[in-house]
């Protein structure tokens, strides 16, 4: 049984060639409503990375109903790393799996024991923050693709002055809809979801309080 403070699993280094700034947040590329997956041509530069993550899930015997990609490239500055700050676990309280990749200013990981963590998505953020041991913090190489289960505790880095361009890519596997306002819509897929307000404070970026509402 996993405990909070797990290390991510590396799938190796992937070189992605970004030619523009962009923001796609939790763009569905596979949903049960459609027979096959579809990813916009604009994101084709990451197709090998997405395939590697998908193949790893297949190898582990995981058949997910929903797959999402997040792609962000912009100018990161102190206080704005282009990802939400704070210590958290992606997929908190769920079995969801996320693969993350950055090309600069690497994600911080707290690989250490955490004790008596609440199941509440807000309380747990403060508990992770209070218990993080600065000596246990780890980063990985730029452009390394990392598999995160819901027990990997991490945070966006502090960006030094004056800042600089930063790219971030994530592939998320779930059996739930990520149906929050602000998440991207894939017009190559034929689906229609009622979208729900995003909580201001949350642990898992896809589920605020139970951020995603599963279709009934």
Describe the secondary structure blueprint for this structure.
Elements: E1 9-13, E2 22-30, H1 47-59, E3 66-76, E4 97-102, E5 108-110, H2 123-131, E6 137-138, E7 144-148, E8 154-155, E9 164-174
Antiparallel strand pairs: 1-7, 2-3, 3-9, 4-7, 4-9, 5-6, 5-8
Structure characterization notes:
With 216 residues, the chain is α+β, with helices and mostly antiparallel strands. The chain has a single domain, classed as Jelly Rolls (Sandwich), CATH 2.60.120.10. It contains 2 helices and 9 strands, in the order ββαβββαββββ. The longest helix has 13 residues, at 47-59.
Q: How many helical stretches?
A: 2
Number of strands: 9
Distance between the termini: 29 Å
Order of strands across the main sheet: 1-7-4-9-3-2
* Mean pLDDT reading: 90
Strand content: 25-35%
CATH superfamily: Jelly Rolls
Query: How would you spell out the order of helices and strands?
Result: EEHEEEHEEEE
Shape: globular
Helix share, percent: 10-25%
Q: Please state the CA-atom Rg, rounded to the nearest Å.
A: 17 Å
The CATH architecture would be: Sandwich
Low-confidence stretches: 200-216
Count the domains: 1
Q: Note the main sheet.
A: 6 strands, antiparallel
Under CATH, the topology can be stated as Jelly Rolls
Structural class: alpha+beta
CATH class wording: Mainly Beta
